[in-house]
Specification:
2 helices
Length: about 110
């Protein structure tokens, strides 16, 4: 599976992200939306140099998403973090220089 480029695990009732996902070096799209994930390990995104789209909306991350943004690879152009009950957004979002799509709808009060 090391050549896998798209991984869609949406709508699977996941509560955590297995760390062995970090071995999928060629991932371009990672869709973990519509699950019950509460925490994203920082190690997960440190190894994804090819990752272009990350979909995490409709999970239970809430404010913990700030940590993810702070540790994401700057080359990621698409990030979907809507409907996570966010009240603030990390100032590091501005460091994601290749970001072309940022989905923030349905958060409490950004």
């Amino acid at each position: 599976m090391t050549k896998l480029t798209i991984l869609n695990l949406s709508h699977n009732s996941l509560v955590e992200i297995p760390l062995h996902f970090s071995k999928l070096f060629n991932l371009i799209t990672l869709d973990l939306s519509h699950n019950s994930i509460k925490y994203v390990p920082k190690e997960l995104f440190l190894f994804f140099s090819s990752l272009k789209k990350v979909y995490l909306h409709e999970n239970k991350l809430g404010p913990d998403i700030q940590f993810l943004i702070d540790n994401m690879i700057s080359g990621t152009p698409a990030l979907s973090i809507n409907n996570l009950n966010l009240t603030t957004l990390s100032s590091h979002i501005g460091l994601l220089k290749h970001l072309t799509e940022l989905r923030l709808e349905e958060n409490l009060s950004l």
